[in-house]
């Protein structure tokens, strides 16, 4: 009998061209998974992700689903997929879900994390998962600016796709800063994110932290609806998809709980 | 004026042939540092480490010192070295120390950490820094066995160098287990460690955790003075030199504080 399986995936995106398979380029995470699942099933199977992640971006909790006939247990299926996966992609959990569940269409909200290494000490072990800013950043100013990102806005100025025809309105529920001696981790919890939106939001916050911009410039950036007005695109390797939410989404706005 | 500088170093040992330069092989961490420091000084300079680390073993806190004429600040020197180092080696701190300080000869004790990934979930981000044991290990039994390693012993059975002519007596002050959902980290604090000693101690503990050995077999392994009686050599990539101590060493014996 055809079953619908939901997986939670982790991957080190460093050597991949992102999640989504593409016409001409190769080496995407979706392709790796489809190859393995299709081989197990003996027929072509499509694996649906909750959303694309950019080339070089990581995931601690990407969600994907696929439909397959399988007589064994969920555990056996998870093991069989993990056995074939390269060591930089892993299935963390796998369970059967109702037939209508769809990783992308059913998703209510997502959390992404961006990690800035803000220290003179080099990030020897973290080097592939952080963006290294040596100069001290003013985190208070960054938090002040981040508050202005909260809520529902047209994020067109923070979208790298200039020919985007669909709505660029999104809602950010929470932005959370977690600081350690060397690291600033910013997590963004929202109902959806545009192409490179988090990297541009983060690049803008970094410029605020460096003193190149002031928090009170943010409203004008929104109003311009122009990508050129926002900050730089922070590198992909500092970004990770942390969690995808399918239940009720939280509607409170909060920075730095 | 000639000054003596002490550095604390972190390195990802994955692509190196260990700390110490060797006659014929290349690509050691010591060589990388000597090349950079010698170039800055304009003459050959030797960099002394607190001890060797094996090929593939990591360090969060290796200590090394060198003598050099330098007019600038400590910070400038540290920056100059870091600028030239590859991204998998980093100087975390650098300070001038008294002329007689020697990283190895002045060292009183060291802490090494061995990390076992003990989960069915693959260690996607930690894969290069852990040894993956899928089967659940009995940590209580491992702790029981580890207690028998504490104190002063002849560790000849846990030394990979069969032609070791010097004393194989060492003292372990503390062994600490830190367990999270997926990981078992064992830290060993002692006055010195023989060639591959921690990897063999850990391999023996893993065999205890798997139920292949019992804790009460440990005294007979010590008594045999025979490498063949101890467990396997756990892989280098799970091992890291965490800290080198130069002050008073702690003489209490303790597991799992």
TrEMBL record, chains A, B:
Protein name listed in UniProt: tRNA pseudouridine synthase A
Broadest EC class assigned to this enzyme: isomerase
Residues at the catalytic site: 54 (nucleophile)
Taxonomy, superkingdom: Bacteria
Assembly behavior: Homodimer.
Keyword terms of this UniProt record: Isomerase, tRNA processing
All copies of domain Pseudouridine synthase I TruA alpha/beta, residue ranges: 9-103, 145-246
Pfam families found in the cross-reference section: PseudoU_synth_1 (PF01416)
InterPro entries: PsdUridine_synth_cat_dom_sf, PsdUridine_synth_TruA, PsdUridine_synth_TruA_a/b_dom, PsdUridine_synth_TruA_C, TruA/RsuA/RluB/E/F_N
Sites where the protein binds substrate: 112
Family the UniProt entry places it in: Belongs to the tRNA pseudouridine synthase TruA family.
EC number annotated for this UniProt entry: 5.4.99.12
Example of a GO MF term: RNA binding
Stated role: Formation of pseudouridine at positions 38, 39 and 40 in the anticodon stem and loop of transfer RNAs.
Catalytic activity of the protein: uridine(38/39/40) in tRNA = pseudouridine(38/39/40) in tRNA
GO BP terms, alphabetized: tRNA pseudouridine synthesis
